[in-house]
Write a structure and sequence with these properties.
By secondary structure, the protein is mainly beta. It has two domains: 46 residues, no CATH class; 132 residues, Tumour Suppressor Smad4, CATH 2.60.200. The protein is 4% helix and 29% strand. 23% of the residues are buried. About 6% of the residues have low confidence. It comes from Salmonirosea aquatica. This is FHA domain-containing protein.
Length: 234
């Protein structure tokens, strides 16, 4: 048999109904025991509710949705260097044909080209490899111009302008076809295919599209000819 404490509502188990009074084990209140039911004025027995724990309740952090991976960024194609500008077409060639210089062929293009001995400190447009001390590092000028007939004209000069006054560019002179007199500052000579130019003691032959199709062809034609006479430099 169970009864409810009138004071604190604690449920009390009665094992002996002959006992008229049972003391509450919680508050000590004396409760009368009535056999066969619950005494009037007493509350119905209610389940005992355990007191809440004094320890703080652990807080569970809210679950966050997993990060959605972003789409990979497109990789830009690698940058490529722009193609080099195409060189101007070759209108002719200077072929070194001398007893004391290695064979070599240099292209001629439209415009003015300064010709001389190869040099790092004073480079020029066409640098000839030679040990000739009489050839200047900037010795003479070969100019290619379109002609009225649709072809090209080739001109040779040995001039430089100093304070507006024409002066000879080379120190030891420039000669054409073994002619003993060197070009003067005001001279401009028209060159024909096969003419020989002597700079210092070194001789080169001019070849054009009239008789050659490329530099290799021009070199072969010149190398098969005899050396031109050399003008003695005094």
């Amino acid at each position: 048999m169970e009864i409810t404490c009138r004071k604190c509502s604690t449920r009390l188990l009665v094992t002996n109904t002959a006992t008229p009074i049972i003391k509450c084990t919680t508050c000590g209140y004396p409760n009368p025991v009535i056999a066969g039911g619950t005494p009037s004025g007493t509350a119905q027995a209610t389940p005992v509710v355990a007191p809440a724990s004094s320890s703080p309740t652990a807080t569970v952090p809210p679950r966050t949705p997993a990060a959605i991976p972003s789409a990979p960024r497109p990789v830009p194609p690698p940058r490529t260097a722009p193609p080099p500008a195409a060189a101007a077409p070759e209108m002719g060639w200077l072929v070194v044909h001398d007893e004391n210089a290695p064979p070599q062929t240099h292209p001629l293009r439209i415009g003015r080209q300064i010709v001389g001995r190869k040099s790092v400190s004073r480079p020029c447009d066409i640098m000839i490899e030679t040990d000739d001390p009489y050839m200047g590092r900037n010795h003479c000028i070969v100019e290619v111009k379109p002609s009225r007939s649709g072809g090209y004209d080739f001109f040779l000069s040995d001039v430089t302008m100093t304070s507006g006054t024409p002066e000879q560019m080379s120190t030891n002179g420039t000669f054409v076809n073994a002619y003993p007199t060197a070009l003067r500052p005001k001279d401009m000579v028209y060159l024909n295919d096969g003419d020989t130019i002597q700079m210092g003691k070194t001789k080169v032959v001019i070849k054009t599209l009239i008789t050659a199709t490329n530099g290799q062809d021009a070199s072969r034609i010149v190398q098969e000819t005899d050396y031109s006479p050399t003008v003695i430099i005094k």
